[in-house]
Known about the structure:
By secondary structure, this protein is mostly helical. It is built from 20 helices and no strands.
Amino acid sequence: MNWPTLANRIRSSRRRPEVKPTLRHRLHHWRRRMFLFLAVIGPGLITSNVDNDPGGIATYSQAGAQFGYSLLWTMIPLTVLLYVGEEMCARMGVVTGKGLSDLTREEFGFRWTFFIMLAGLLVDLGNTTAEFAGVAMGMGVFGVSKYIAVPVAALLVWLLVVRGTYRVVEKVFLVGCGFYVCYVLSALLAEPDWSKALRATLVPDVHFSGPYLVMLIGLVGTTVAPWQFFYLQASEVEKKVGAKQYRHARMDVLLGSITSMAVVFFIIVCTAATLNLHGLTNINSAAQAALALAPLAGRWASWLFAFGLINAAVFSASVLPLSTAHVICEGLGFEAGIDRKVGEAPIFYGLYTGLIVVAGTIILIPKAPLFKILLFSQVANGIWLPIVLIFMLLLINRRDLMGRMTNGPIFNLIAWSSSIVMILVTLVWIYMSIFPSKALPGMFLLP
Length: 447
């Protein structure tokens, strides 16, 4: 027997027998993992749920009222698309330590970045206006004038960000996520046909009509909005989540995607079981849906629906201008971030304040078309989405930027397919809007 073999046998004989982990050790291990997850949780959960804003709620309510349960099948592919898009941004944020607009400027130059920033500013101004429209309509259910509700809400969201730190703002946003349970309770009070809802979720019911096509664009536009990608990646960077916490960041995104789409599911179920069932297939706002619920599902269902709308409006009115200010300042090279003081990031806070003031002022105009603002903001998201997705895909597949953390074939297949489908559907919609004679009967057209 040679000496190396003998030495190995002597060493192995001296080893202590393996001790199986006790229940206490296992509990300690899981407790440690839970604390790590709770330390990272926030960006994914907030970003996913904040997009269930007044414009989204109006779109989901109209989907349920007009088409009943038949659009519930979209919940599964939309959850996958939402997760894939946000996971890519979270991964880019933790690997590169830079925001999406910052990376776009560095990798594609100032010209393309300026185009994306300009599009983002216009779309997000419409989105922010839609949030204050939601405040006006939601408070209107309780008899409060928009001339009181909107200025108060604008002041509150401005003070929250300008006077708060990132940790404080994030905690307030996480509390706001919890109030979306109002829509779950509203759906339960509506007493829907759960077997029919489940069947519609698992078995697609597709029919090719103008209104159905536009509603599909609106659903995608409001569920997977481009601003989410910019805000999520910026949040991961500002929270200083590193590559070692990537698994927890990914779980945060998964939890956010599932909870967000669960809320959408219950909104559609609620309006399908009440408004659609009683022939109220054409509503003008989420607030109208809330009021219509009272005689059909009871006063509590109506109030819960309206309260959920107000919470979503104030929540989103805080995050959307914040996201836009982050996007533009990162893209153009200015200082940005809630933890910076006003004097350190004047452009960032100036943009945030300007968006709130302009959006709130538009809503205070007498006879402002609130529902059209809501609906158009969602369709605008659907048009902007493929452009942002393409830039994201080009960035995340660069090995010199991401190393081993580039996309796998499944992620690329889902993301590229979604982008191509959205581009084709949007082009058809724009063509029919420009040439009304070619439009399908009943199609919602651009003015």
